[in-house]
TrEMBL record, chains A, B:
Entry-linked Gene3D superfamilies: FAD/NAD(P)-binding domain (3.50.50.60)
Similarity comment text for this entry: Belongs to the FMO family.
Top-tier EC class: oxidoreductase
Documented EC number(s): 1.-.-.-
Domain of life: Eukaryota
GO molecular function: flavin adenine dinucleotide binding; N,N-dimethylaniline monooxygenase activity; NADP binding
InterPro entries cross-referenced by the UniProt entry: FAD/NAD-bd_sf, Flavin_mOase, Flavin_mOase-like, FMO-like
Organism in which the protein naturally occurs: Potamilus streckersoni
Protein name, as recorded: Flavin-containing monooxygenase
UniProt KW keywords: FAD, Flavoprotein, Monooxygenase, NADP, Oxidoreductase
Swiss-Prot/TrEMBL cofactor(s): FAD
Length: 445, 445
């Protein structure tokens, strides 16, 4: 009997439930599905959590969301073709949305088919075991509100949609244990106003480093030194932000860089990325990977080939340019496979396919290359699953990337045109760097 | 076959290993013992960890230690009679010790019998199951450095010594999610210097609230408002510290109290205690308790009576006046039971004994009562196990408590006399509130 255990009710998991609920609405017989969600709400990373560290039950906090986050993608890059922004809001809104607005949009789509009915909130998966004799999986979960282990359950399929921006990668630097101020990872960053008037060291050179540095300047940080291994980000920064090579060591409040220069700072923010971590899975089911556009051992980036039965799947485990739409087509593809509407090829064909992608990935050396690669991946899934829409928004991505390189300070003031409605976004009432109230009302109304 | 799984290599776990190693040294045949320790060092809470939240493997940080912590007990309250401070340091040191000095003392004792040889560092216990047919336990662990599940192992006995000051109790207050500054639990407090010049709200009225408030004033916080449900702590505070009733709500930076007063603060520190949490244990083995001087379902405060075989034990799960010496006699008592040198009475006698203690506990209504209660508990274990020393230091505790009530600012400047050596501690070179360098060298040399 087909019975699906879905782990995680963020954008990826909810896309899978959306497709299942929609199929059911269309009169299809869908299998039993249970979605376990650790948080008290659906939406994954898009929920804001005032806590850091562990939650009220002692489990690591999932969220890495900060109060004033704006998407670093124009919404036209992740708009879902069967549920457009125009449809949800009934009017045009700016291209760069905020956390409340984004979550509102996503949950609007789930609500159309009551997809949340499958979700058990506040429930953690503790362990999953594959039973080769029965060719199924046993899942142990715990109800955190009742503070009780749940009876173990059997499932034919496991779908892991727990995200990979939750467990901080936080390397040691000599002397960090002597630093007198706050040392935090971007995972624990909640509100830039904490750092008003402060001198900061930001370690890292990827999206978090760039966005958190700008946030802090916007909300009044005195100065920011960005340090990275991979060389300067090279944007035209506001004068408060300077770039330095990699941090070498820390002595008290003084941070020393590889080039021999040093400065004093009040706090250190690690923007050094995340680790793919699945503490609820045993080694034989556990994806082990760097953050890459094509993780190993996943056919079509989805099916875990190492158990051999192809009934363990992962959604959204790629590094991401495409986000919501990629999760959506992955989920749709996975549903069709699980429902038996689509047959997987033999193992050797799957391996050849994976090798082909991994070879292609070796030629990706820039952001534009990455956008092209992931566009091709998403379009391959569209074709292979019979997804009804063309998700290629490569041109918007490339245009956005050029604008971002031209001006990191103003790129969120740009407007883009929806591929699906033709609507050109309206402008924010003020430039990004002058908008301090980015509540739902302020952005939408 | 007797085979012990000990979980945790803090002061409690190391006391058990000390006794086993010592028995071995004395020519006794001791059972196989494996101690699993999540951290990379022995010493439990006494290790300082610059990280907060999760460790480099994504597991919740164990430690709640802050840089400038001094014991709030005179060392004469926790001195181990067979390994005195005089013996370890070769001279008299002050009564109130610091984290480095305390850990150095504790580890000195372990080293005398090489007790760390039983410890597997960086190894987490993921699950424990009791097998009624075999009357043993299966333990699943994971080597965090190798990032590998270890083969499951069978044990006759489980001893849980993981402490109960690791998982924050952090209640919600209306509006906390809108507060723009840092909101942290004392578990994540690392260095008071972060709060220099700041106005703080400290929630709570127990030892952490008192100690962290004083720390922050000592290192330059501008003002501190202490808010608590249970009424003012009532000490003669320095002028920077004021007491308020319970927090009612938060609006932006403004915190409102039950009495209608309000103030603006820069950061909120929860000193609201910890939860007994054992996420690696299933419900049938899991101690569920408030922080109390006599947790339920533990015969002699140690043996878990609910599995029926009396082979699951907990060390150090009590609320604590006595610390190191209580863990030590508990460990000694547990060793004697496990080695068969001591027989447990029938179930009904154990239940009568537990009821007697719990009835007695109902009459404890003050700190002096609590000290007397725990003295009696510790002395009962001494007698019952044939522990070679008299651990009663009630008089020192009561004297200390009086001095603390007289002056919270100066009580750590007092000296006490060791029950075991007769030595009167030397004084610190300066009063507590003026000592800013409390490194090992500064305190000992």
């Amino acid at each position: 009997m087909t019975r699906i255990c879905l782990i995680g009710a963020g954008p990826s998991g909810m896309s899978m439930l959306y497709h299942l609920a929609k199929m059911e609405e269309q009169g299809k017989c869908i299998p039993d599905v249970v979605c376990y969600e650790k948080q008290s709400n659906c939406g994954g990373l898009w929920n804001f959590d005032w806590r850091t560290g562990v939650d009220e039950h002692g489990e690591p906090i999932h969220g890495s969301m900060y109060r004033h986050l704006w998407t670093n993608l124009a919404k036209e890059c992740f708009e879902l073709p069967d549920y457009t922004f125009d449809h949800h809001f009934g009017k045009s809104i700016p291209s760069f949305t905020t956390r409340e607005v984004t979550l509102d949009y996503l949950s609007g789509r789930w609500k159309t088919v009551n997809a949340t009915k499958f979700v058990r909130l506040n429930t953690i998966v503790k362990n999953v075991v594959y039973n080769p004799d029965e060719d199924n999986f046993t899942v142990w979960a715990r109800d955190q509100v009742e503070d009780k282990d749940l009876p173990s359950e059997q499932f034919s399929h496991i779908v892991v949609a727990t995200g990979h921006f939750s467990v901080p990668n936080m390397p040691y630097f000599k002397g960090v244990e002597t630093f007198p101020g706050r040392v935090l990872h971007s995972h624990d960053f909640r509100d830039a106003r904490e750092f008003k008037g402060k001198e900061l060291l930001v370690i890292g050179s990827s999206f978090s480093a760039e966005d958190i540095s700008l946030q802090c300047v916007k909300f009044g940080a005195k100065s920011i030194v960005c340090s990275s291994r991979s060389g300067p980000m090279g944007f035209k920064w506001p004068e408060e932000i300077k770039e330095k090579p990699l941090l070498e060591r820390i002595e008290g409040q003084t941070v020393f860089f590889k080039d021999g220069t040093f400065t004093e700072v009040d706090a250190i923010i690690y923007c050094t990325g995340y680790k793919h971590t699945f503490s609820f899975l045993p080694d034989n089911l556990r994806l082990q990977t760097e953050n890459t556009l094509y993780p190993p051992n996943l056919y079509k980036g989805i099916v875990w080939i190492k158990t051999g039965n192809n009934k363990l799947m992962y959604i959204g485990m790629q590094n991401q340019y495409y986000t919501m739409t990629m999760f959506d087509v992955q989920s749709f593809w996975a549903c069709r496979v699980i429902l038996g509407e689509k047959t997987l090829p033999e193992r050797d064909i799957m391996e050849t396919d994976m090798s082909r992608w991994i070879q292609k990935l070796e030629r990706v050396t820039s952001i534009p290359d990455g956008i092209d690669f992931q566009t091709e991946y998403v379009m391959d899934l569209c074709g292979d699953s019979g997804y009804q829409h063309n998700l290629d928004v490569k041109d918007i991505f490339q245009d956005l990337n050029r604008k971002r390189k031209e001006s990191i300070i103003t790129y969120k003031d740009n407007v883009f045109k929806s591929k699906f409605t033709g609507t050109v976004s309206c402008k924010h009432h003020k430039p990004f760097m002058s908008v301090f109230d980015d509540s739902y009302d302020a952005i939408v109304n």
